[in-house]
Each structure stands twice: as structure tokens, then as C-alpha cells.
């Protein structure tokens, strides 16, 4: 999906854009305004914003014109606990409001400002609500990750959370054991293309297929980069039992302690305790 927003210039230089390019029709009721946003976004469920803690809000795109710039600017707006939140999307330069709204929604979706609810409508998630949480794609402290950390901690292993194992490499492990040089990644089934549960998207299939393929390639590159630096990578799918996964991690740590992460030198054992701060 390619955004049609322009951050630098629009189609109008001398005159202000025509009203039909940005101004909504007067007298529209709430249902009509909602329907207009739904059509532009590609569906009612394409407008959800992740608020954290499993909460979502339905966003809308607002178009504004400023007389000094003679440009149409698009904003994504939603409400969180009674407070209006706004994100600037950029400038639009189509000749109709319908096209400009659609262009703005393309940008919101491209930037992952909204939850891609319909990206995998046939996924293994049991309901739209579950898919909303699953696809919120939080960068850390997801439920599977927290469960895995608790299980590992229960085995008496100490670890670091959300750290870059190799300086200069912008890849962060969910759990890291620096002494044994073991990096653990908790991978979401949808975003990392789980062979058991991933289902291709039905809408915007080219865009989402390329995105998941890119994630897989990045994972492979991360594994290779860390291996070259002497680290061992363990990847845990979100559907895996956290207790069993923790046991597998502990076994690897034990082996690495015995042989040393570089295949010879003994490593300092990880100490039992709570999570250590990230760096």
C-alpha cells in the first residue's frame, strides 16, 4: 500500500483548495459521518486505535485548511478516557474530499497507527476482540512475554529485559542472559509468520504479505548477526506453553555454562532473582 500524502507540497499554490476537496457536507448526522469514515478507511474495524491494556478507540480523519499555507492537512483523531488525541498525518492534494480521506487513511494504516483487524480475518484468534489485542503488536510486556518471564524466573534464572545484546546492532532481545550469551525472542504468531497459525490476509494481501516476509527476513538477519557475535538465539512462539519453553531455555543455559558461550571459556552463571533493568 503506498501513501498518497505529500509532506512537502500540495496541488494548490496560488489559491486555496476548493471546498469539495476537504469540507464535509453540512447537515450530515452522526451515522452518515461514520459511514463516510468507514468507506474511506476500508471498513468499520479498520479505524481502531490501540490504547493499551486491551482497550481500543475508533478514530476518524479530520481535514483542515490553513489560509496562509493553502494546503489541506490531515489529522487522525480519537478519544482516550474523555481526552481527544491527535496525530498529524501530512498534506493531501486530491481534488475531492472522498479521495483525500482515503489517502489519509492509507497513511494511518501504513504507519500502523491503527490496528489491522482485518489483516488476518481467518487467523486462529477466536474473536475480533482477541484479534484486536493480538494485533496491537506491543513492542514489549505482551502477555506471552510476561508469562514466559515468570516461568523462567520460577526456575531461578536471572535475566535482562528488552536489551540489545550487541552494541551498535539495533535489535533488542525480549530476554537476555549475558553470562551465557543467550538471547530469547518471544514472537507473535501473526507478525512473525508462525507456520502453524499464520494465515495470509484477504484484504491488501500484497501489502501484508510483504510486511510479514520482511519481518521473517529481519528475524533471520538478527539470528545471523547475533550468532556471528557469539550469541545463541532462542525463539519462542506465543502459542507455546511458557513452562515448557522456560525449561528449554534453562537446559540451554546449563549447557552454555558448562561449555562457555564461545565454545571454551566458562561463563559466569546467571543469578536467581527478579528482572534486571533494561539498558
UniProtKB/TrEMBL annotation:
It comes from Frankia canadensis. This is T/G mismatch-specific endonuclease. Residues 26-48, 267-279 have a biased composition (Basic and acidic residues). Residues 1-14 have a biased composition (Polar residues). Residues 1-48, 255-279 are annotated as: Disordered. Pfam families: Vsr. It comes from the Bacteria. GO terms for molecular function: endonuclease activity; hydrolase activity. Keywords: DNA damage, DNA repair, Endonuclease, Hydrolase, Nuclease. The keyword tRNA processing does not apply. The keyword Hydrolase applies. GO terms for biological process: mismatch repair. Belongs to the Vsr family.
